[in-house]
């Protein structure tokens, strides 16, 4: 289906052309991976500081606290606390999850899984990464400005995020950083969409693509449509801050202006709700594939799963109002957004039945990628179901802006996405670096993370149910929240456990790469195109462009003789 | 530096258990229980919450059972040969469709219908001050305090006889209380945990909320929307009185208002004509 010849380029020889300004999608994917893991650690450390403050108000966090806040004897001061949760949210969403799930897996997997030699626009690809680096630097630069980084929450609602509420240059840098990151994401999205459409190997129809590719594809479409919306909002905010316009300032006493702060919320959530799916769709794809690979049978209802991804992509664009119920929109809109949001549970229900259907009567191999994938079913189940309370307007009146919301979206956006991301890293490690990670420590990493994150996010939901609202430096100035101190302590212990578990991952990851013990080309015995070539993948990927003759999940076919799977390049064996 | 670090860490190790032991006398369920509901209609929210919880527990149990039972029965050790199916047989498709319908019609549309009914017929249906006896209060949020304005003797807002309080809301029980809310600077949210409700306070816009308190006592009001560094301190106190006690307080406050409100000072008139 390739509409033009894909040449084999010479191997880059200099260090710079090979590792820094590389055109190779595999190198760019790895660059995104390192970038994402770096920010994941920064954002995670911020989360621990936040948790520490909530569990032990007024007490210094050992070592880290003393290094970062010597002026207050190691205790996080209130203004730094606001910066911490703002930066934590921003970093995790835009600088950790996005680069890992979309940047790293998108780049690495698309050409390999559709049988192409590279992305269709390699230089755009390289630019996309380096623009993301600029954006990351802009964000971090905020930390060293006199008034510190942005501190208005990751949603940065005006008028708090205008000069009225955040006079520091940090907020401007934050807004610019998000705008620049949008450009990077947009370049990536255009590249992904085009590559998937024009560079699929001959014989590969859309339903012959692995579900991972479906996920990344839908994500890229949402990115291409909605990132510009966020960009527009950011641009207007920059105008308000730098050039004195009043798009988001309304005419009350202290906020002269003919604009409307709610306008930003509309713009933000038109992007913001699809963003949830932008983050989770690649994860869904990866999980749907891996469940089939390790249950050794075809993905149950794979076409339905793909079509559900499409319908969720469409639906996600028309439900954003559920984030704004407490702004008292018209009841007609409330009802519409509530009903539309509920319809998302139809495709979601199909996902779950299909995932469990894939496990049903399988021959399950509990490898570490498989454990992480099964973990996703559990945490996304909890995350999805608890969304019902928030889509329902009357229960949202109570739960909105409480820790219940925090717990809910961490289950969907943090827990599910992280577990899916780890599943992907463990699974494609041979293809990326030519090595396998240690299985035993991989499983320990899974169980500790799984315990930790459930403790954290379940605890958050309980605290929110108990009435504890968000973004409080010290919740216990309120008498009615004082009984929640033990719950908060428990959350913090769980977060320490979860954080500690990631140390195991980092050591395992680095150690396997350094030790460099070669694995065979197809250690997982899977038939998708990336496993037909050597591990790690050579710089030109495929010597011959493969011809696809069957689907990606041909496992467990009883007509097969000497192995239980077949490659996508083989004619489907019939009994 | 190293020494303070050391001492702090040691101090911390010893205070650690103290935190963990705090409030041990409460049971787990008492600990996470929501604030006591003192409103006439809060039970509607509680009921719907519990209904959704029931449905969620049911579906989550199915998911967990699916994971656990299939993992046990179909592990490679126990189940050598996988069943080769794409899940596209008629029975499979019917099963998937039945699950979807059960979730969507059985639960989602039910919740949506009930919630919408509660919202349009109760929570979002403003009382009519011309027809019934309601207490009207204007709320002004600003960094980082709450101001409350009562209409005073003439029953007209933004006049010199208005009773104005700071972080101190007093209302009678068994009577509808009708708030109009706005913000002076950034977005805040007027959150009364004990009635299970909150509503944004938006600069340049007036939002409203009504409720009927049913129990006398002392409670708390919070700001639920991030509004800057001291968001966490934006706390007000709520006193619910019996009608007699309220009248006593109001009469007294009225006297002070007339004495203290200086009609020459324009900052006194931050209120607005009731909408
Ligand atoms: Cu949403
Ligand atoms: Cu606030």
Structure characterization notes:
The complex is a heterodimer of chains A (about 575) and B (about 280). Chain A has helices spanning about 15-20, 25-55, 65-70, 80-115, 120-140, 170-200, 210-245, 260-295, 300-315, 330-345, 345-360, 370-390, 395-400, 405-435, 440-465, 485-515. In chain A, helix 2 (about 25-55) packs antiparallel against helix 4 and helix 5 (about 120-140) runs antiparallel to helix 6. Chain A is about 60% helix and about 0% strand. Chain A has a single domain, classed as Cytochrome c oxidase-like, subunit I domain (Cytochrome C Oxidase, Chain A). Chain B folds into 2 domains: about 35-125; about 135-270, Sandwich (Immunoglobulin-like). Chain B has helices at about 1-20, 30, 40-75, 90-125, 245-260, and strands spanning about 135-140, 145-150, 165, 170, 175-185, 190, 195-200, 205-210, 215-225, 235-240. A 5-stranded mixed β-sheet of chain B has the order 3-2-1-5-8. In chain B, strands 4-10-9-6-7 form a 5-stranded mixed β-sheet. In chain B, helix 3 runs antiparallel to helix 4. Chains A and B meet through helix 4, helix 8, helix 9, helix 10 and helix 11 of A and helix 1, helix 2, helix 3, helix 4 and strand 7 of B. The site of one copper (II) ion has 7 residues of chain B, from loops.
Jot down its keywords.
heterodimer, A: 575 residues, mainly alpha, Cytochrome C Oxidase, Chain A, 62% helix, B: 275 residues, alpha+beta, Immunoglobulin-like, five-stranded mixed beta sheet, 10 strands, elongated, binds copper (II) ion
| SS strand fraction of chain B | 15-25%
Question: How far apart, in Å, are the first and last alpha carbons of chain A?
Answer: 29 Å
The coarse overall form of chain A would be globular
- In the CATH hierarchy, what is the superfamily of the largest domain in chain B? Cupredoxins -  blue copper proteins
Give the C-alpha Rg of chain A: 24 Å
Most residues in contact, chain pair and counts: A-B, 115 and 105 residues
> Class of the largest domain in chain B in CATH?
Mainly Beta
Shape of chain B: elongated
Do you know the CATH topology of chain A? Cytochrome C Oxidase, Chain A
| Low-pLDDT residue intervals, each spanning 5 or more residues of chain A | none
Architecture of chain A, according to CATH? Up-down Bundle
CATH topology tier name of the largest domain in chain B: Immunoglobulin-like
> Distance between termini of chain B?
60 Å
> How many helices of chain A does DSSP assign?
16
Q: Using DSSP, what is the number of strands of chain A?
A: 0
What small ligands are held by the chains?
A: copper (II) ion
For the sheet with most strands of chain B, the description reads: 5 strands, mixed
Output the strand order for the largest sheet of chain B: 3-2-1-5-8
Give the topology string of chain B: H per helix, E per strand. Answer: HHHHEEEEEEEEEEH
Tell me the helix content of chain B: 25-40%
- So how many helices of chain B? 5
């Amino acid at each position: 289906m390739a509409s033009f010849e894909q040449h084999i380029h010479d191997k880059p020889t200099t260090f710079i052309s090979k590792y820094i300004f590389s055109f190779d999608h595999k190198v760019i994917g790895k660059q995104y991976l390192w970038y994402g893991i770096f920010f994941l650690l920064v954002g995670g450390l911020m989360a621990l500081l936040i948790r520490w403050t909530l569990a032990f108000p007024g007490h210094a966090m050992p070592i880290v606290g003393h290094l970062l806040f010597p002026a207050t004897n190691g205790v996080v001061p209130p203004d730094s606390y606001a910066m911490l949760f703002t930066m934590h949210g921003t970093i995790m969403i835009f600088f950790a999850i996005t680069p890992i799930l979309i940047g790293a897996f998108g780049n690495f997997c698309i050409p390999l899984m559709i049988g192409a030699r590279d992305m269709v626009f390699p230089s755009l690809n390289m630019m996309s990464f380096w623009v993301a680096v600029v954006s990351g630097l802009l964000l971090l630069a905020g930390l060293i400005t006199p008034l510190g980084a942005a501190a208005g929450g990751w949603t940065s609602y005006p008028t708090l995020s205008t000069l009225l509420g955040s006079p520091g240059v940090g907020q401007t840098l934050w807004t610019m950083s998000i705008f620049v990151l949008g450009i990077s994401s947009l370049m990536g999205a255009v590249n992904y969409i085009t590559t998937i459409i024009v560079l699929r190997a001959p014989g590969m129809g859309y339903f012959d693509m692995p579900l991972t590719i479906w996920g990344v594809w839908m994500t890229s479409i949402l990115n291409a449509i909605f990132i510009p919306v966020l960009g527009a909002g950011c641009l207007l905010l920059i105008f308000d801050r730098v050039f004195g316009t009043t798009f988001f300032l309304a005419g009350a006493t202290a906020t002269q202006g003919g604009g409307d702060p709610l306008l930003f919320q509309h713009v933000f959530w038109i992007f913001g709700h699809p963003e949830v799916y932008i983050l989770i769709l690649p994860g869904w794809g990866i999980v749907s594939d891996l469940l089939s690979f390790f249950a050794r049978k075809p993905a149950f209802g794979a076409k339905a799963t793909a079509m559900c991804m499409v319908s969720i992509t469409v639906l996600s664009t028309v439900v954003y109002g559920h984030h704004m119920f407490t702004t008292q929109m018209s009841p007609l809109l409330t009802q519409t957004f509530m009903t539309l949001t509920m319809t998302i549970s139809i495709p979601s229900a199909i996902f779950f039945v299909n995932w469990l259907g894939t496990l049903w009567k399988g021959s399950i191999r509990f490898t570490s990628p498989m454990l992480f994938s099964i973990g996703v079913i559990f945490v996304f189940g909890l995350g999805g179901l608890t969304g019902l309370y928030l889509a329902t307007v009357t229960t949202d009146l109570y739960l909105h802006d409480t820790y219940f919301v925090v717990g809910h979206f961490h289950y969907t956006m943090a827990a599910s996405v992280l577990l899916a991301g780890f599943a992907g890293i463990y699974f494609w490690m041979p293809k990326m670096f030519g090595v396998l990670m240690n299985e035993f420590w991989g499983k320990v990493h899974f169980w500790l993370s799984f315990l930790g994150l459930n403790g954290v996010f379940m605890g958050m939901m309980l605290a929110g149910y108990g009435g504890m609202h968000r973004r409080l430096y010290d919740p216990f100035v309120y008498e009615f929240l004082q009984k929640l101190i033990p719950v908060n302590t428990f959350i913090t212990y769980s977060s320490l456990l979860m954080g500690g578990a990631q140390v195991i991952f980092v050591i395992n990851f680095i150690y396997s790469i350094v030790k460099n013990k070669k694995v065979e080309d197809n250690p997982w015995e899977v038939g998708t195109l990336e496993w037909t070539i050597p591990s790690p993948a050579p710089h030109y990927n495929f010597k011959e462009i493969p011809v696809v003759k069957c689907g990606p999940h041909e496992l467990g076919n009883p007509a097969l003789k000497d192995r239980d799977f077949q490659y996508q390049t083989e004619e489907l064996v019939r009994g | 530096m190293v020494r303070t670090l050391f001492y702090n860490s040691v101090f911390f190790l010893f205070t650690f258990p103290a935190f963990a032991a705090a409030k041990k006398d409460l049971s787990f369920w008492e600990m996470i229980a929501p604030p006591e509901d003192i409103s006439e209609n809060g039970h509607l929210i509680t009921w719907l919450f519990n209904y959704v919880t029931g449905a969620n527990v049911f579906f989550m149990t199915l998911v967990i059972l699916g994971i656990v039972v299939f993992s046990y029965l179909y592990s490679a050790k126990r189940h050598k040969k996988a069943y080769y199916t794409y899940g596209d047989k008629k029975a499979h498709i019917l099963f998937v469709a039945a699950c979807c319908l059960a979730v969507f019609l059985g639960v989602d549309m039910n919740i949506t219908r009930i919630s919408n009914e509660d919202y349009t017929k109760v929570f979002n249906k403003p009382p009519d001050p011309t027809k019934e006896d309601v207490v009207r209060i204007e709320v002004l949020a600003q960094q980082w305090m709450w101001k409350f304005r009562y209409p005073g003797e003439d029953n007209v807002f933004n006049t010199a006889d208005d009773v104005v309080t700071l972080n101190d809301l007093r209302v009678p029980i068994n009577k509808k209380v009708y708030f109009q809310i706005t913000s002076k600077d950034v977005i805040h949210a007027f959150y009364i945990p004990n009635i299970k409700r909150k509503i944004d306070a938006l600069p340049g816009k007036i939002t409203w909320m009504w409720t009927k308190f049913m129990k006398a006592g002392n409670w708390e009001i919070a700001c639920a929307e991030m509004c800057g560094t001291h968001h966490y301190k934006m706390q007000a106190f709520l006193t619910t009185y019996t009608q007699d006690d309220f009248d006593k307080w109001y009469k007294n406050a009225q006297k002070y208002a007339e004495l203290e409100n200086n009609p020459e000072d324009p900052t006194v008139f931050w209120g607005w004509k009731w909408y």
